[in-house]
Specification:
By secondary structure, this protein is mostly helical. It has one domain (2-137). It has 5 helices and no strands. 32% of the residues are buried.
């Protein structure tokens, strides 16, 4: 329960940052990661291998951010590494899938109805936050 609240708060904070400034504060992400590790020491809700496996997906996003020269922000990869720490591999993969689907749905709406351009950037972390809320509700 504590881990869920910490992650929800971190994602909420980063969502607001992403909407307002199109960037996130790395120190908040690192602080949340430290809190997750402390919770893991106390509660041991996941194996360390599951946590590291969950972080791999964020590492892949971070690598893609570098290879795409910033088409995807590096903060998105770092946040997915953080969610991997909290959720483990399987739930983080589910979170990725849902957040990508929400972002794709919004993009279709933005292009079709709001007449946005394909090159327009959208903040991604709010979709990650929404996807996490759905996971909590299931």
């Amino acid at each position: 329960m504590l881990e869920q609240c910490l992650l929800l708060g971190t994602l909420g904070f980063h969502s607001l940052e992403d909407i307002r400034r199109k960037e996130i504060t790395l120190m908040v992400t690192l602080g949340s990661a430290m809190a997750c590790l402390i919770c893991h020491i106390i509660f041991q809700s996941h194996s360390i291998y599951n946590m590291l496996g969950g972080m791999v997906f964020g590492g892949m996003i971070l690598l893609f951010s570098i290879l795409s020269r910033g088409k995807i922000g590096p903060g998105d990869g770092m946040v997915f590494m953080l969610t991997g720490l909290y959720l483990g591999a399987e739930k983080n993969l589910t979170l990725m899938f849902l957040s990508f689907m929400f972002a794709a749905g919004w993009s279709l709406i933005a292009i079709g109805i709001l007449h946005k351009n394909l090159k327009d950037k959208i903040p991604f972390i709010p979709f990650l936050f929404l996807a996490y809320l759905v996971i909590l509700a299931i």
